[in-house]
Amino acid sequence: MLGFLFNRRKEKANNGEIGALGERAAERLLKRKGFRILHRNWRSGKDEIDIVCSTESILVFVEVKTRKVGALVSGYEAVDGRKKKALLRVCRSYLYKLKGEARSPRFDIVEIEHDEGRLVGERHFENVPLFPKSVSRGSK
Prior knowledge:
This protein is an alpha+beta fold.
């Protein structure tokens, strides 16, 4: 009678595995582009940013979205206003902890596309609007 609950849990685990696969693919993409990975799944309270990396003097916060081929909502579009507020909180917390290290922040989205767990595409959206012009190192 409750079999559907167990199947749903199994499905969630598969989604988690696919998400982790997408994050590893995003990390490889960023490394190929010359980024240095600083942190994975950095948390502040309940908020999390998937990847924190750098290139030259720019600190890049990256949200990874893994989507099935033909998904109705793209990974880029899935980062809506509510998600951006949570991402802004965690990014500001990270910047606050730097205390004086001069770095210009940037927010990117990496969208990974899969077909039944097989990676088939990747897109890197750079400098996605997230930070107000007043955000700089150490501001909260």
